[in-house]
Amino acid sequence: MTPMAKVILKAAMINGLIWSAVLLLLTYLKNGIIYTNYLPLWFPFFAITGALRKWYMITKSNKE
Fold it and tell me: Using an 8 Å Cβ cutoff, are 24 and 39 in contact?
């Protein structure tokens, strides 16, 4: 695995975990019950967006 792929994977995991936990906390505070039904949808969405953002920032910095 290339160093760039490791950086992107790490960013994806961190982004997915943090934002999924934030949404889980917000739904708990709103409803008083922890709903994990949407967690399989939230985590991949935030992981993919975090990976795309990191990839974009890396390619943008390499072009300059």
Answer: yes
Q: Hey, what are 29's tokens?
A: 């505070």
Closest CA to 47 of 15, 20, 21: 15
Phi, psi of 61, deg, nearest 5: -70, -30
Query: For residue 32, is it left (φ>0), alpha (ψ between -120 and 50) or beta?
Result: left
Q: What tokens does 4 get?
A: 């760039």
Computed on alpha carbons and rounded to an integer, the radius of gyration of the chain in Å comes to 15
> For the chain (length 64 residues), average pLDDT per consecutive 10?
93 96 93 88 96 95 85
Q: pTM for the full model?
A: 0.86
